[in-house]
């Protein structure tokens, strides 16, 4: 009888396997980082302008994206239906001019960030391209231990 090896992973190990989600902005941004709570306020449109008074433009991946699922879970603490309802209510109450802009690929998000100075998006760290600035979150970059996403 041949020996065999059973390999198991803990839930913590599995959660670290995914590509970290970098928060990216236009390279001209004066920001270097945000706190987790600032990210939450920005993506919930509780903060709609950058410190230099540029309007924040949210870029969110399309519903079929793994990136979107992670953002909804980890930033919004919502499922897809709750997310849609949240934005409909914000627009109905005139709390926002419009909801997030939908992007279909990381390249599309990066291209838009390159031409829209106030844009912000989550992009898998491995898909970062030149022309955008990766923000530190709570003083950490996506490549560092302790980065939240």
Give a summary of the structure in a few sentences:
The protein has helices at 11-16, 36-43, 66-76, 80-92, 106-115; strands spanning 21-26, 33-34, 57-61, 101-103, 119-124, 132-134, 136-137.
**H/E topology pattern:** HEEHEHHEHEEE
Number of strands: 7
Approximate helicity band: 25-40%
Strand content: 15-25%
Oligomer: single chain
SS field, number of helical segments:
5
**Rough shape?**
globular
Strand order of the largest sheet: 4-3-5-1-6
Low-confidence stretches: 1-16
In angstroms, what is the radius of gyration?
17 Å
Structural class: alpha/beta
Q: Cα distance, first to last residue? A: 44 Å
Mean residue pLDDT: 88
Main sheet makeup: 5 strands, mixed
Explain what this protein looks like in three dimensions.
With 149 residues, this protein is α/β, with parallel strands linked by helices. Helices cover 32% and strands 18% of the residues. The strands form 2 sheets. The chain has a 5-stranded mixed sheet with strand order 4-3-5-1-6. Strands 2-7 form a two-stranded parallel sheet. The N terminus is likely disordered.
